[in-house]
# Entry
Amino acid sequence: MMNNARLAVGIQGVAVAEAATQKALAYANDRRQGKAASYRGAGMAPIVHHPDIQRSLLTMKALTQIARAICYSCAHAIDLASRSEDAKHWQERANLLTPLAKAFSTDVGVEVASLGLQVHGGMGFIEETGAAALYRDARIAPIYEGTNGIQAIDLVTRKLPLGGGRHVHGYIAELKAVADAVLASNLEGFGLQVLQETGCLGEFVER
# Structure
């Protein structure tokens, strides 16, 4: 029950992040301010052409997609824990991913909503835009169903040591296999980065 509840809160973080991203992108395409090297049209450039706005929007999109992927993986594990022949394995996977899905995704909701406010500039504080409301909606999620600090304690003290660390190491091995597959594709640079980050994760767990 708690896995489902905490995953639901994580999904709330993803939902707020997605809404904030869409709202910020629409505003950035509509709002015109200053000149931009990439804009060839007449008059002021839509702010979506400004590098800082592009950085913010890409960061918002990337964080939202990462949070969504973690929540999907957690939901997949919860489903298989009640339907698979290997229910114990998937229950352990759900237990491992639940604090990540809850804490990371709700932190992302707050961060992305804050970036959305930044993209809106002063208009972000005007209630008619809805950007400030999204930030307020996001801010409660890291608090309820177990604060994110509690989720971190749960992850480190209870979930990582599951089975003597066997499960988390098995999960890291799966991630490494994915990284190796990407490395063998035409995305070699990205695959190398994923492989390096997976190695860092393994080193952290060993500590």
About this structure: The chain has seven helices and no strands. The chain has two domains: 2-159, 162-207. The chain has a mean pLDDT of 92.
